[in-house]
Design brief:
By secondary structure, the protein is mainly alpha-helical. The protein has a single domain (6-86, 126-153), classed as Arc Repressor Mutant, subunit A (Orthogonal Bundle), CATH 1.10.10. It contains eight helices and two strands; from the N terminus they run H-H-H-E-E-H-H-H-H-H. Helix 2 packs across helix 3. It starts with 5 loop residues before the first helix and ends with a helix.
């Protein structure tokens, strides 16, 4: 199963909250309480997001964290990369030809690379601003979700 890790999920939730009022500064404690997440986990995530250039850390009495750029300029792909590292669907994409013992005989690695590019582009096309708003009830992905839930219950 292809799945983002828990910290990336939490990071996206934290950032989507910050995107609602992008000019504010937020403390780790406030974000932790607001999202119902453990304080140490939130602090760790915030530090990773600062290192990834997504957030800016401010010191002093009016300190805290703020978005490093407008929410519409920060993509989900950047968030995933800041928390998990480069997006790679297979080992051969992440490590190149030397990552797999079968690479000299592999005829499909270039297709995995193509799929990885499509996946990355899709994640890059969704911004934090997009993530901070609920989807319209007619959005195609919600219709597909309804069908998946209906099939799973049947």
């Amino acid at each position: 199963m292809l799945r983002i890790n828990r910290e990336t999920d939490y990071a996206t939730a934290i950032l989507s909250l910050m995107a609602l009022q992008p000019d504010e500064r937020y403390s780790a404690a406030w974000l932790s309480a607001r999202r119902g997440l453990p304080g140490p986990v939130v602090s760790k995530i915030l530090k990773q997001l600062v290192r990834g250039g997504i957030l800016v850390s401010h010191r002093g009495a009016k300190g805290g964290y703020s978005l490093g750029r407008p929410a519409e300029d920060i993509s989900v792909a950047e968030v995933i990369t800041a928390i998990e590292g480069p997006i790679a669907l297979t080992d051969c994409i992440e490590g190149g030809g030397g990552a797999c013992q079968y690479s000299p005989l592999c005829a499909i690695s270039h297709n995995w690379s193509r799929l990885n590019d499509v996946f990355y582009d899709a994640l890059k096309s969704v911004s934090l601003k997009d993530m901070s708003k609920p989807l319209d009830s007619g959005h195609p992905s919600l219709k597909a979700m309804h069908q998946r839930v209906k099939s799973a219950v049947s």
